[in-house]
Amino acid sequence: MYNRREFLNGALTAGMIRALWHPRRLHRTPVKAVVFDGFAIFDARPVFSLIDQMFPEKGAELTALWRSRQFEYMWLRSLSQRYSDFLSVSADALVFAANALRIELTPANRSRVMEAWLQLPCWPDVMSSLVTLSDSGLRIGFLSNMSTRMLEMGMRSCGLDGVFDHALSTDRVRTYKPDRRAYRMAVDAFRLRREEIAFAAAAGWDAAGAKSFGYETFWVNRQNQRAEELGTGEIANGASLSDLAVHLRVANGS
To answer: Using an 8 Å Cβ cutoff, are 211 and 197 in contact?
Structure first.
């Protein structure tokens, strides 16, 4: 594990300070808790690698259509108030994508893919970054569209049991982010004002939703994606959770 002082001394270069500093931070309410989207912690790439192994000729095409339909189904179910959890929605979206591409998806292969969601590894920077955040006095939790079972299995497989103060799944409110009811879960669970909570997003649309809700928002943009055009203005971002730790240190003026 990293020593907190050594980590921060090494990370806070002059260039990073210039990139993150803004005079308005002097007047911001200090952040007291950080909540993470599940995919800021868990690495989903093994699921999509499995698709490539199963269907080498159409794996990339299947994955692209599946992921698109996966989110569409989440949001359509939220709008129609017909909630189904992440794994169920993902299974339905996979069947649709396979049928659309005329790919034979056997029940066994479908089960293998769904099981892979329950065995996700953590990103390499997770443990050291969570230690840094906890050592600085911040409370930490999940705020995720992933199901409760997925979060529990992920924490167990990554050795993160007991690390998070709250593991908040949208199963609780039966709607998906970016519904404001989903973001509000952290306010209620931590009993803090939204200005006292930071949200670490794994996707640009989620970062936009969290910022619109009122959270101090940081986009863990591991794949260097383009920002969404959703009218939220600039959102702080970096390539890793280490960048998040630096951002919060500067935001809190410490």
So the answer is: no
**Sequence spans of domains, the chain:** 4-42+120-251, 45-119
Q: What is the DSSP string of 57-123?
A: TTHHHHHHHHHHHHHHHHHHHHHTT----HHHHHHHHHHHHHHHTT----HHHHHHHHHHGGGPPBP
- What digits encode the pLDDT tens for the residues 195-230? 999 999 999 999 999 999 999 999 999 999 999 999
Distance separating alpha carbons of residues 160 and 61, to the nearest angstrom? 34
- The CATH architecture annotation of domain 4-42+120-251 reads 3-Layer(aba) Sandwich (3.40)
Question: Residue 140: beta bridge partners?
Answer: 34
- 40 pLDDT higher than 90: yes
Query: Does 37 participate in catalysis according to the annotation?
Result: yes
Distance of alpha carbon 151 from alpha carbon 184, whole angstroms: 19
